[in-house]
Write a structure and sequence with these properties.
39% helix, Leucine Aminopeptidase, subunit E, domain 1, alpha/beta
Length: 188
């Protein structure tokens, strides 16, 4: 199946692997609203990046935490990136509690932060589809559609948006969503 889609001068790419090993300018972390290390992608990023990330988060942490759909940026510690963008996706509660809007906001905020920092390449996980229970088949079109809209509306800001998907079933769901996005005519 197709693993990339060109959006103007930029590309959205799907990769199967470990996000902590993919070199990009900015790496998006699936953070919790308290911005403390957790499990899954968040735990992997903190383990691989080392204590410098948490030390910086402790200084940046907004009072009351980081709201769902938003994000903050730190340095990347020992990771193969310059920055880590800690995005808070929604917890799945059946789909009737603004989950798609909150998920789109988490991705859009992450991409805006990356572009604002001067990143040209960004790696992202499948936000909210692990412990937060968002169904991958529903999350993938939101993630890819948000990235495609951002790249279309902001040409020249980011050159490459790489979705790094840890397991085969998630990769397949994103491939189907990418094919759907392409068939909807979202690609130029």
């Amino acid at each position: 199946m197709k693993m990339e889609l060109n959006i103007g001068p930029a590309v959205i790419r799907l990769v199967h692997g470990d996000i902590t090993r993919i070199p990009t300018d900015a790496m998006v972390n699936a953070a919790n609203d308290e911005l403390v290390p957790g499990g899954g992608v968040d735990g992997a990023i903190h383990r691989a990046g080392g204590p410098a990330i948490l030390l910086e988060l402790n200084r940046l942490r907004p009072r009351g935490g980081c709201p769902t759909g938003s994000a903050v940026a730190t340095g990347a510690g020992n990771l193969p990136a310059k920055w880590v963008i800690h995005a808070v996706g929604p917890i799945w509660r059946g789909g009737g509690f603004a989950e798609p809007e909150d998920l789109a906001s988490a991705y859009e905020t992450s991409l805006k932060l990356a572009a604002g920092l001067g990143a040209r390449t960004v790696s992202l996980p499948s936000l909210s589809t692990g412990a937060y229970g968002y169904p991958v088949a529903k999350a993938a079109p939101v993630a890819l559609g948000t990235a495609a809209r951002f790249l279309s509306k902001n040409p020249g800001t980011l050159a490459q948006v790489v979705f790094v998907l840890y397991d085969e079933s998630t990769l397949r769901a994103y491939e189907r969503a990418l094919k759907g996005l392409e068939s909807e005519g979202r690609s130029p």
